[in-house]
Structures are given as structure tokens and as C-alpha cells.
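Loading example: each entry is read as two labelled lines plus one structure line.
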Amino acid sequence: MKPFKLTILGSNSAVPAFNRYPTAQILALNNAKYMIDCGEGAQFQLSKFNIKRSGLNHIFISHLHGDHYLGLVGLLSTLKLNSRKENLHVYGPAYLKKIIDVQLDYDARKDTGFEIIFHALEFGKSEKIMEDEQIEVYTIPLDHKVECNGFLFKEKEGSRKIIFEKIQEYNIPTHKIKAIKLGADFVAEDGTVIDNNILTAEPSKPRSYAYCSDTKYSESIIPIIKEANLLYHESTFMHDLQIIAAERYHSTSIEAAKIAKLANVKKLAIGHFSARYRNLEPMLAEAKTVFENTELGVEGTVFEIG
Amino acid sequence: MKPFKLTILGSNSAVPAFNRYPTAQILALNNAKYMIDCGEGAQFQLSKFNIKRSGLNHIFISHLHGDHYLGLVGLLSTLKLNSRKENLHVYGPAYLKKIIDVQLDYDARKDTGFEIIFHALEFGKSEKIMEDEQIEVYTIPLDHKVECNGFLFKEKEGSRKIIFEKIQEYNIPTHKIKAIKLGADFVAEDGTVIDNNILTAEPSKPRSYAYCSDTKYSESIIPIIKEANLLYHESTFMHDLQIIAAERYHSTSIEAAKIAKLANVKKLAIGHFSARYRNLEPMLAEAKTVFENTELGVEGTVFEIG
């Protein structure tokens, strides 16, 4: 199985506290990297956790509160200074293009090096916004104070897996293997047909990661995120502040865990913690009362997906 | 003497390296704070070095390369979220207002809480851009790839100092002291006039701080910065890269030290180090060959001024 993992670069909500950084994450599948939100300092966190900027070709921005995008122009500038050649795709609210352009237009930096290909996202519905050879990305409509999308990353179904013992048993030449992986039967020299199902096994089950921040509690996302291998759900407040959470279009630990449970995901990571919490263990303990397989998504934590 | 000190929040040039931050500084005189440049992450550095955001009413931005301003909107957003009431003055290139507005206009955050009073600066000449009860600030025209100002902070001359022995000797009542500080003579009950010069001494010599980043070597700034108690001068490269430094409108360690020597300043702080230098000691040693009283302006260093 290809390595598929999420690294948390920032776990804090808007007001900085306790050396926690604002929201940013790196999802890595094989050698490709996908960035999810890019709060201030995200590029410093990449360096800190030894994550190279190469292979990062897609950046997804959920919404335009500063703690989710203010690191973007700094990262783009660094990539420009690093003589990057590959184009970079940025997905986010249409207004984000204006924010990028007004800054990169100055000193004509926009036109040097690689191209930034901007994809303006829509809101209020789930749709496929990106697809490459290994993954599909869908929006998750969230319920926040401003237009906001979560993102669902779904690994594509791989080809069937060769059973090596069978290859040896039937003495199958190497140049035939690619076709067999794609479903072909094998015809031996004597004309015997060996059915593909004998030679191959089911591909690994595709894995998925659902990112949901920022949002108030909303069960409408459940059909989209169900059975995800990993769900990141914001948990800005502990549950005694449920009313404040709802007023501010945020969620509590219990609410995040409830969504994880209803969606029957394998694991829950919580984050986007309010600056009022220095110690996050009570928050974690509270979430675990509803959904046991919960972890804190704090800076530097790596989640293996599936 | 009022405490007058400079704290370095970031010492690195544009490409992040070795956990050094981009340029930002806090100058504090008494309880007032003045911020000079505001690179990405400046607000995190304030927290790290336990510098409260209160008392910070003036922010000066030298030029619009990202490593000098990208932390500004994050800091402004945090101040908005913290229910700050006092207006905040921002000084910088006119285009900076556009950059701020396009971001704060979103979600109407611009109109909540305090007012941001923007002062568009001119370039190519030194002029007074700010004055309060204790300080005057002048621009220093720098020679960079884009329009760029340094800043000279000049303490105002204080009132004369009371000589307490004389107050006792002439039995002067407390309510007369303020006027004497401001230059009045004292008239005793018997009509004798005691000259102010007998009762008071010269005020402390006003102190000054000159900030010069980013710039290529330029002796034209010397008349403006001369005799400063502290000069910060950028030193992006070591002197073997003098040609590259000039091409990129930056300075070398030797050039920074030469300016310090020609301007006869008391102390030199160097910074804005290229990402190619992990170890900065050779850079410091090189500068000291020309100007002995040089220090590295690295993160967390506090310079007492005068």
C-alpha cells in the first residue's frame, strides 16, 4: 500500500496562543503532497517538520478567515524565490484570487517562475474539484460565518494485486504482468486459459480523509464523510461552551465526536483549539466519552491513513 | 532616563531558514511601543518574547517585499479579535493600504473595533512622518529594488533636570518644581531671585535609533543617521558576495560596518541574513574588522539604546 499520511502544521484557532500555529495541514500520498489551509507561518512549520516543498502542487483553502490563509502569499513568494518550475494549483473562494494578485502583482513577482492556476470554488454543495492519477477531491459544504468548504480526499481504486505464488506456479513471463494487473486472463503456451481471478486478488480498499473546519455542528455532512479512514473535525470549544460555539459557528469536542460516531469513521482528529485552552487533555477526554478513537491534531502529529 | 530598547523579532532575509524569522522589530520607549517592519509570524514572536500588544500604536513598514510586511494583516486581525479600542497608525508605501483593505474588507472586519489610520509615505527624501510627546520619526531614503524607507527614531529633548540638593538648600515648595523644570527662576519670599541654571542641570542627551533595511551600500544616508546611539543596518551577505549584494540591492557585513564607522554611531546591529548562512559568527567577525562595536541582531536580542 502506498504511504498515505497527514501531518498537522497548525492546531490553533484565530488568536495565537501557547506556541500553537493557525490551521495548516499536509496530506501526502506517495510522493504527492496536498496542502489543506495555510495559516500564517505554515511555511516555517514545513521546515520545522522537514517536509520538503517539492511535490506540493495543490493547495486547498477552506475559507477566508486569516487563520486559514494568511501563510499562503508567504509560501508562494518563497516558491517564487526558489525558482520553482512546476505550476501550482490553488483552490479556494473566488475572492482569494484578488488577495493573492494584489500582493504578487506588486514588484511583478506574479509573472516570474511558475504559474499559479487558481480554481474558484462554489459553496453549499459537494462536488468534485480535483482529480489526478491517484486521488479525487470533493468539497464538503460546512456551516460557518462565511462561505466555507471542507475537503474529502478519496484515494482512487487501484488495479488488482498480483498473487506472486501464482505467477511462479504458472511460470508467467514478466511482460504479461501489467495486462494481468489490469484484468487480463493468461493464456499459456499450450492454450490453457488461466482466469484472472486465480492470478490476482482484490485491490486494497481505497482510503479517504475528510477535513471539516470551520463549522458549527451539522449532520448534513455525514453522507459525504461516512466511513472515512480519518476525519479531522474542528473542536474549538469544550462542551460547556456549546452555546458560544454555535453562536460563533464553531463546534465543541462532544459535537466533533458525535459527527465521527454518526459517520462511522475509523479515527477522529480534533483541532482548531481556542486560545482559552492551554492544556488540551480535558478536551480530548471529553471527545473520547463519545468516540473512543480520537486523537489531538496538534503540531507535528502524523496520522497514518488506513 | 526612560528605558529605551529594541527587541529583534526576526533576523532573516526572504527565504526562511534555520528557524530564523523574517524582519520585524519592536522599539520600546517607556511604555510606548513602535513596531518596525512586520514579517510573517511577527505576532508569534511577540508572544514568544513576552511583549504585550498593549502600548503598540504605531507600525512602520519599510517596503513591500513579503518578508517585511506579511505578518501585518495577521497582527491586525488578532488586535480586532482582542477587542482593542485604541486607534492604530500604520506608516508605509501607499500600496500597502490596498493590501490591508482587500483583506480586512472581507467579512467586514475593517469596520469593527479600532480604526486603522494609514499614513502613505513618500520616498527619496528624509522627512518627519510622526511625532508624539516623546519621539520624532524621520524616513531614511534607502536604495533598494523597490521603493524603500529606513526610519530614524529621535528622542525629544527632555526638560532640564532638577538638582535636588539645591531644592533643599533653597527650601523650594513642591508646587514650584514643574515650572522650574521648564526653565523658570525661583523667587524666594524675601524677593531674592535664584537663577534656573543654579537649580537645574542639562537634560539627558536625546537618544536615537536608525533602522536601515533593505538597501545597497549608500553613503548618502550618513548625514541622516550620524551619531545615532544604535544603527541597525542590513547585512544580507558576507563580503565575498559583494557583487551579488549590489546586484540585488543588498549590503554586505563590511559595507554595513563601513556605514556605521562613517556615521560615527555608538553601536551597530546587523541582520537580514541570507538563508545560505547557518552560522553567523563569521559574518559578525567580518563586520568587527571594520567596526568593533557590532552585534548580531538575532531573534530575542534586546539592545539598550544609549
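The interface with chain A takes residues 14-17, 19, 21, 40-41, 43-44, 47-48, 64-67, 70-71, 73-74, 77-78, 81-82, 95, 98-99, 102-103, 106-107, 145-146 of chain B (CB under 8 Å).
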